[in-house]
Amino acid sequence: MSLDAATVKHIARLARIGIQDTEVARLQGELNGIIGWIEQLAAVDVEGVPPMVGTEQAALRMRDDVVTDGARPEAVLSNAPGRNGLFYTVPKVVE
Amino acid sequence: MLTDLSIADGLRGLRGKEFSAVELTTAHLDAIAALNPRLNAYLTVTAEAALRGAGAADAALARGEQAPLGGIPLGIKDLFCTEGVRTTAASRMLENFVPPYESTVTRQLLRDGAVFLGKTNLDEFAMGSSNTNSAFGPVENPWHRTGDDAVLVPGGSSGGSAAAVAARIAMGATGTDTGGSIRQPASFCGIAGIKPTYGRCSRWGVVAFASSLDQPGPMARTVEDCAIMLRSMAGYDARDSTSVDRPVPDYAAACGRSLKGVRVGIPREYRADGMPSEIEALWQQGISWLRDAGCEIVDVSLPHTQYGLATYYIVAPAECSSNLARYDGIRYGRRVEAPTLDGLYEASREAGFGAEVKRRILIGTYVLSSGYYDAYYLRAQKVRSLILRDFTEAYRTVDALLTPTAPSAAFALGENMDDPIKMYLNDIFTVPASMAGMPGLSVPAGLDHQGLPLGLQLLGRPFDEETLFALGSAIEQAADFRRLPSVTAGRVR
């Protein structure tokens, strides 16, 4: 499998990372190098092997469905790059 | 010199009133002021808070209280959120991020009386093996090749922590290890470092990279010091859903424990193309040290070792692409304005992330994307099961494994930079245990012909860090590793 320039741009778009047209060729080379290398896993016989999820050292546990934190809007907003009162600001998304 | 003391000796001296915590912290702050402009091991120095903490430690000592780390000055990897202190993950994205909360691990260290000197440099978002991916400049390894001033990398991603401890501008430091980020820099800088079992230390408040692999751990100049620190760092935390609720043993008590009858496996697959013969020789030396200490040496096979790295470079980027989706330029972190919301996301992330972080997000996005998920991600999870099975099988017949930590000594700044995969190969011996969630300890064991430190790695059963500390202290004692780096507090070549 080899990524073409359009796929590189599509992946960058999915990841919401802006890339310049001048970067595409370099990224294409690097990503193809890495993808080509990880394709060695195709040689492993995984027939009947269950996928490992997490590291299986412990099962996820249930917790009580109660509020344990909150009501600290100033702390939550303290690193906001743009705010208006107790709200984050974003560019207008509804016309 | 006070900066040369181990944590264990520092605690004895403080409790015996030979010196005060303020004196101990001041000695380290002075050394940081002298060496950090060159080493760049600290991104932020918190001198005032450190002196306040040291004063409080002295007051506690005067009251007769003996906190487990009372008055011990430490460096904190800048991936741990520290309340009111800038936490950058060495990224432009978080250049001005000031957490309103304290990570669980650092809160526990403070609870036990530790003094924080500052935040240490790292590869951006802990992605790298050389510390050259930091947005705030590389770290200089305090070691140099004999008769050669070339600047060497400290390894990574916990490179600032490793360099600070080796240069004696911290008595110990926290690190995090996703694929080798504690063990490889420990090996490159001639110090000890342990990646505990996944779930042993809470990840809460640690900037996330690959959540099924990330694990905090201690880095220090002796195995016993790592054991002392781990006791404070480990423990159950309800705020980390993968934290494991088991008692925390007195790890330091395991150091020096008898090794009679302990079975140590030597995995035949832990050899890399082009690995220097000195590393093979050191490994053989380690085997004979452990045999002399009473261990039984057993040849074992971990047949899927060769697939560890490729599996890692699917699983870790996949998790990173998901975890780093949170950096959107809206709630915190860098923001670059644009007329549309998507434009703001794209511009903020383009400006905020460095080249390696972008590469890994893109790889992760690709392997998780529609049509490729089964071929890459699902297959990698299955191979991960096979890697885990290899270890589980091995631990039926042996108590631990001995391997080299890294396939080379520290390399020069600029080497291994032309090809990302060449850099990835640094972690060939550390990644498999990360994939399996098993603990691993790197111990400084010798020097190569250029006078650079080399580490040996001990891997163990889940939650059996004590056996690693016992084996590690035996290697440490046999190796009698005393050589100092060329740049240390009070002694600059």
Automatic annotation (TrEMBL), chain A:
BP terms from Gene Ontology: glutaminyl-tRNAGln biosynthesis via transamidation; regulation of translational fidelity; translation
Entry annotated with the keyword Ligase: yes
Keywords: ATP-binding, Ligase, Nucleotide-binding, Protein biosynthesis, Transferase
Signal sequence extent: none
E.C. no: 6.3.5.-
Catalytic reaction(s) noted: L-glutamyl-tRNA(Gln) + L-glutamine + ATP + H2O = L-glutaminyl-tRNA(Gln) + L-glutamate + ADP + phosphate + H(+); L-aspartyl-tRNA(Asn) + L-glutamine + ATP + H2O = L-asparaginyl-tRNA(Asn) + L-glutamate + ADP + phosphate + 2 H(+)
One GO MF term: glutaminyl-tRNA synthase (glutamine-hydrolyzing) activity
Superkingdom of the source species: Bacteria
Pfam families noted in UniProt: GatC
Subunit description: Heterotrimer of A, B and C subunits.
Role summary: Allows the formation of correctly charged Asn-tRNA(Asn) or Gln-tRNA(Gln) through the transamidation of misacylated Asp-tRNA(Asn) or Glu-tRNA(Gln) in organisms which lack either or both of asparaginyl-tRNA or glutaminyl-tRNA synthetases. The reaction takes place in the presence of glutamine and ATP through an activated phospho-Asp-tRNA(Asn) or phospho-Glu-tRNA(Gln).
Protein family (similarity comment): Belongs to the GatC family.
Classification via PANTHER family: GLUTAMYL-TRNA(GLN) AMIDOTRANSFERASE SUBUNIT C, MITOCHONDRIAL (PTHR15004)
Protein name from the UniProt record: Aspartyl/glutamyl-tRNA(Asn/Gln) amidotransferase subunit C
Annotated source species: Lichenicoccus roseus
UniProtKB/TrEMBL annotation, chain B:
Catalytic activity: L-glutamyl-tRNA(Gln) + L-glutamine + ATP + H2O = L-glutaminyl-tRNA(Gln) + L-glutamate + ADP + phosphate + H(+)
Record bears the keyword Cell membrane: no
GO molecular function, one term: glutaminyl-tRNA synthase (glutamine-hydrolyzing) activity
Enzyme class: ligase
EC number: 6.3.5.7
Catalytic residues, chain numbering: 77 (charge relay system), 157 (charge relay system), 181 (acyl-ester intermediate)
Record's protein name: Glutamyl-tRNA(Gln) amidotransferase subunit A
Organism lineage string: Bacteria, Pseudomonadati, Pseudomonadota, Alphaproteobacteria, Acetobacterales
